[in-house]
Design a protein that fits this description.
The structure holds 2 protein chains of 2 kinds. By secondary structure, chain A is an alpha+beta fold. Chain A is 20% helix and 18% strand. Chain A starts with 25 loop residues before the first strand and ends with a strand. Chain B is globular. By secondary structure, chain B is mostly beta strands. The chains are: A alpha+beta, B mainly beta. Strand 4 of chain A pairs antiparallel with strand 1 of chain B, so a sheet runs across the interface. Chain B: This is WD40-repeat-containing domain protein.
Chain lengths: 293, 332
């Protein structure tokens, strides 16, 4: 281990002459085994003199390696790798993307996969439809080919082809019962079948007239923070109605801000008061009432 | 967990093997070369070239001096690990499917394929662990099983028995000194695809195309544990230090092009060895997994797929921390 105290200077030899006006670096040994080094230099960007105080702790990490393994690490490369430089070659070795391995009791296939499978099944079902009778075969192979007229009229009657789904509102409920369930439905007709009472479907206005008075905006959140973490952190101020953490669509990591709606304004204001300026993970949270966009 | 991807092969992987200390990783594939990597960073140390056909099996002796390879060019070759030099070649009438050193490294077990009128045969060769020594040409023991094709084989503890897996899903135990059949039981409904021993060799895991893996007692071939998967299994390994097994498989290579990679089930599956439950999966390969090898210290594992890639994983902390509630409550 090199003794720092014996070294005359830790600054660069090239600017020795220029910085001759500075006092020599001062090294003091602290009683707890650390060292304090005080050096002076000129910050090249601002041109100001800077005094740097560093506390240095040296620890020796010993790793025990089997001598045979240590010896093998020094072997020369051979075969197709003969003469290659030491270290991994990008041609044969690369680092893959991070794949999480989460071990859980009672592991099950994630829903996402199941959805995909069922989607594939419905596609398969829809793939072949006879234009004559609507059966699952090609029109030319239809057993009723001679008896029924081969027109799209038959198809129209059982609404099996998306082509016939007209934009009229009356066609939409029929389409939702037929096999063309996955066909495109315009936003103003959605949920028409599900909520029969209010046939007007989803409304964009529902976002606008939502009561946001008890909603707080939390920003400067670390990337690794999840909704659960936030929930745990903020539920102590009152019952949470809604928690939204903005995430990157691709990486699925937090974008650093979240909205939390409480049932009660007083909980929201208490959360603002208590949590604003608090450190969480390694960042200082900023908590305020959310403003209307 | 960030895997290290190794691209030393152009064809599907057939076997991976760590050496005893776990610092070297050997890989064989259906191309003609054998690769050896440093397992900690994936750096390729070298290759062993000289085989004329697809390679089926590889094994390292306990002192990491010589490596044996069995190939479809009907040969077994011994190589000096350090230099890549071929030091011996045995010729056979058919392809060699399995090579395995015993615990002491003084015997080599080999299986040849049943083909072209030749029976599948088990050979045991005496080995001198010295790169300059002349190796014996003739086997100590040689036996075959006419009605039942061998697929995999391994040495039991103390070189007492040779355990073999068969095409019809049965597992047999032969006396390693005489070559006599001691016991034979039917374990799986379909072909046994892999047979790997626990570190102390008192039990072993078999995987099969019938979508199950089983742990059997070496002493009496009793089925102790059964692990049920949702896809045909090609390989399985028992992890030291933690009570898990890692299984690999997926759809048959011939069906892969007809389905998406999600449905192919090309993941490494983690099961709890005692409770037989599936506890996790690890994605990565885009073809079925052909071989899995676990680091002898239990710190990581490597998987080789039909896609030609080897993925070397070093387990992170959560892997070692995982416990069942009953395990947590266990008195110290």
């Amino acid at each position: 281990m090199p003794d720092l105290a014996s070294k005359p200077s830790t600054t660069n030899w090239a600017d020795d002459d220029d910085d001759s006006g500075f006092p020599a670096p001062l090294v003091t040994n602290n009683p707890d085994g650390t060292k304090t080094v005080i050096t002076y230099r000129v910050n090249p960007e601002t041109g100001k003199k800077v005094k740097a105080i560093q506390r240095i702790k040296t620890t020796v990490v010993k790793e025990r390696v089997n001598p045979a393994v240590a010896e093998r690490k020094r072997w020369a490369k051979f075969g197709l790798e003969r003469g290659s430089r030491p270290g991994p070659d990008v041609k044969t070795t690369s680092v893959g993307e991070n794949t999480p391995l989460k071990l859980i009791v009672g592991w099950k296939e994630s829903k996402e996969e199941k959805v995909e499978v069922s989607k594939a099944e419905t596609v398969k079902v829809k793939a072949i439809t006879c234009r004559t009778c609507g059966g699952e075969h090609f029109t030319s192979r239809c057993p009723y080919k001679d008896r029924l007229p081969t027109t799209d009229v038959a198809a129209e009657s059982n609404v099996s082809t998306p082509r016939t789904a007209t934009p009229e509102p009356s066609a939409a409920p029929a389409a939702s019962t037929g096999p063309a369930k996955s066909a495109y439905v315009p936003p103003h007709l959605r949920r028409a079948g599900a909520a029969a009472g209010r046939g007007d479907g989803e409304k964009m206005s529902s976002y606008r007239d939502r009561d946001d008075s008890a909603t707080i905006r939390v920003s400067n959140i670390g990337e690794d923070v999840t909704e659960d973490d936030l929930g745990r952190l903020f539920e102590r101020f009152g019952r949470i109605q809604r928690l939204y953490l903005a995430k990157d669509r691709e990486t699925n990591r937090s974008k650093g801000y979240a909205f939390i709606s409480y049932y009660d304004i007083s909980s929201a204001s208490r959360a603002c008061e208590r949590m604003n300026g608090r450190g969480f993970e390694n960042l200082i949270l900023r908590v305020e009432f959310s403003k209307k966009a | 967990m960030r895997p290290i991807l190794l691209k030393g092969h152009e064809r599907p992987l057939t076997q991976l093997k760590y050496n005893r200390e776990g610092d070297l990783l050997f890989s064989t594939a259906r191309d003609k070369i054998v690769n050896v990597y440093y397992s900690h960073n994936g750096e390729r140390l070298g290759t062993y070239t000289g085989h004329q056909g697809a390679l089926w099996s590889v094994d390292v002796d306990p002192t990491s001096t010589i490596v044996a390879t069995g190939a479809a060019d009907n040969t077994i070759k011994l190589w000096e690990i350090r230099s890549g030099r071929c030091i011996h070649t045995w010729n056979f009438p058919t392809a060699v499917k399995v090579v395995q050193f015993n615990e002491d490294g003084n015997m080599l077990l080999a299986i040849t394929e049943q083909r072209m009128g030749y029976q599948g045969t088990v050979y045991v060769f005496p080995i001198t662990i010295d790169v300059e020594a002349k190796q014996a040409e003739e086997p100590i023991i040689k036996f075959s099983s006419p009605e039942n094709k061998f697929t995999k084989a391994g040495w039991s503890y103390l070189n007492k028995w040779i355990i073999t897996g068969h095409l019809d899903g049965s597992v047999s135990k032969y006396d390693a000194k005489t070559g006599e059949l001691v016991q034979k039981i039917s374990v799986h409904e379909k072909e046994v695809t892999d047979l790997q021993f626990a570190p102390d060799m008192s039990y072993f895991i078999t995987t099969s195309k019938d979508k199950t893996a089983k742990i059997l007692d070496t002493k009496n071939l009793k089925v102790m544990k059964t692990f049920v998967a949702d896809a045909p299994l090609n390989t399985g390994a028992i992890t030291p230090t933690k009570d898990y097994v890692i299984l690999g498989g997926g759809q048959d290579a011939k069906d892969v092009t007809t389905t998406g990679s999600r449905q192919g089930k090309f993941e490494a599956r983690f099961y709890h060895k005692i409770f037989e439950d599936e506890i996790g999966r690890l994605k990565g390969h885009f073809g079925p997994l052909n071989t899995i090898a676990v680091h002898p210290a239990g710190t990581g594992f490597a998987s080789g797929g039909e896609d030609g890639y080897v993925r070397v994983h070093h387990f992170d902390k959560s892997y070692f921390d995982f416990l069942y509630d009953v395990e947590r409550m266990r008195p110290e």
